[in-house]
Amino acid sequence: MVNRLAHITRAVLALTVLGSGLAAAAGTAPAADSARTDHTGVRLVSAVTAAGAEPTLPFGIEIVLAPGWKTYWRSPGDAGFPPEVEIAGSQNVAAAELAFPVPHRFELFGLQTFGYGERVLFPLRVTPERPGEAVSLRAHLRYLVCEQICIPYEHDLAFDLPAGAAGLSADAPLISAAEALVPDDGARARWRVTGISVAGDQLQVSAESAGVPFRTPDLLVEGPSGLIFGKPAVDPALDGRSVHFSLPVERFGNAPEVATSNLTLTLVEGDHGLERAVRVADFAAAATPVRTGGAGMWLVLAIAWLGGLVLNVMPCVLPVLVLKLTGVLEKAGAARRDLRASFVASAAGIVSAFLLLAMALIGLKLAGLGIGWGIQFQQPVFLAVLAVICLAFAANVWGWFQVPVPAFAGGIAAAADSAEFRRPRRAAFLQGVLATVLATPCSAPFVGTAVGFALAAGPVEILAIFLALGLGLATPYLAIAGFPALVGWLPRPGRWMRWLKHVLALSLLGTALWLGSVLVQQLGWWQRGQSDDSIAWTRFDEQAIAAEVARGRVVFVDVTAEWCITCRANKEFVLLRDPVRSALGAADVTPMLADWTNPDPVISAYLAGFGRYGIPMNVVYGPGAPRGIALPELLSSDAVLAALDAARRSTE
């Protein structure tokens, strides 16, 4: 193993030479709120326009770096030193604490360093000696920037805040966004450390996620002098819900044992971070046990079954169920055995389709691709094939099946038609498959909960929960198969059935036209505007949410798609009607629209952060709910208005 102290020694010597040769570069210009060098631009900024009466004032130091250059985190790694701020000469300033956003790992010449490239804003939390009075901040900043060489810089920065009411400045969104990047205890990303131990010269750390999944996580460990922690071997679970790290540890001199040392763990995934102080020897006693057990799984399976049952009355699936019952009425004189076989075949088609869907999602998950409920509707080929199938079924109902249908697109429908008289069980099976396919763009009570749990779990759980969903959707079919006498409760066949068949055919035709409209939008041939919404939607930007909340605003996020029927129902019956429409148009509300019609990894990650894998999803943010209030799949005016009021209330 390469001796890291040798690398560090060489780096320190190099910095010493550069520091002596570039003393002029440090600069001794008069204090100002900004400074520039050949490689950096620096600003001292404030989130407020006056001191107000706050016990802590939100400042920040922004460093903009030239391309290819970087600066350092509080623990820079094998080389470098962190930014330092001294406040000598300030007036009415008791203390100033520099906070560090989530860092990134850099590798150069075998050295591991941690820091930032391009641009970084360090929150600076200033505590006045006498809150309510004017503050004169004088900040002497020392920092290091590196590319092929390293250059230390120093600046004297100044910022004066008058006394008075503390309004928000133009830089408040930047500082709020930077504060959101400072690692917390895991609450924002819904992470937790579940295990830490020492095995030989390896530190073993495990973590779990109930929110933001682990895709390319990293772990940075800080400890006493003389303990050096190498780059971890990372083993994330396939579903992104857990991760295990194994870090090599080197001890030098009189460094303490790792097991008895106080360590700081910083877990990083993209812009999300968790920070936790731990002591290996004490962790086992303090760790929260992981809840397991069959009772929880049985509850989820019951929820999945209820969700599948409710899907039968959703607008996506209802035409297929009614079409099935109409076919039964036409054969009212058939033997009960034949009726039972027909409904069992339809139920088998439903369950088989759900299991195939589950296996497809498991395959995508194992491949590391995004997954979700209804994501096949983001694929134009799928939409085109399904639209042709719906047209074929409508033609079948109208008795027009002699109209030729392309074999590559109408194979399933043609099979259903040829089987109508010769192989009725196969036709019933295919009707069950169609019911499942049409169900997937629908969300309903219990469905989102079950699907979210399934897709966050492993392959066995996915199969079990999708089986329960399929059994729920198939329950009406199985009920009639078990009790064929239920058919006798339906009206007797007559001329009204001819009109009903026409209505059902029109519903299938409408489904095909709707699928076609989604298809042309996905292909970019036509875009349906939002002018009919009468709501001033802004484009979804997760990073902008924190900035809006920092300004005291309420943010309403609507994750929707053109293929999501439940989303359209929520919009037409709740969002576009008063009093909700007026509430979303209030001066302090920012409505954000996240369009998931086409695949979008940013929106997929946002959904996963709430443990959701399907839509609709609506979330309300505000000063009283900075982490968001997730609303149920089926909206109501009372639920939306209550969430807006709760988010509007300040937590102070």
UniProtKB/TrEMBL annotation:
The chain crosses the membrane at residues 297-322, 343-375, 381-401, 432-456, 462-491, 503-526. Gene3D superfamilies: Glutaredoxin. Pfam families: DsbD_N, DsbD_TM, Thioredoxin_7. It is a multi-pass membrane protein. GO terms for molecular function: protein-disulfide reductase activity. Residues 298-517 form the Cytochrome C biogenesis protein transmembrane domain. It is found in: Membrane. Residues 59-158 form the Thiol:disulfide interchange protein DsbD N-terminal domain. One of its GO terms (cellular component) is membrane. Residues 1-25 form the signal peptide. Coiled coil: none annotated. CDD domains: DsbDgamma. It comes from the Bacteria. GO terms for biological process: cell redox homeostasis; cytochrome complex assembly. Keywords: Cytochrome c-type biogenesis, Membrane, Signal, Transmembrane, Transmembrane helix. This is Suppressor for copper-sensitivity B. It comes from Dongia mobilis.
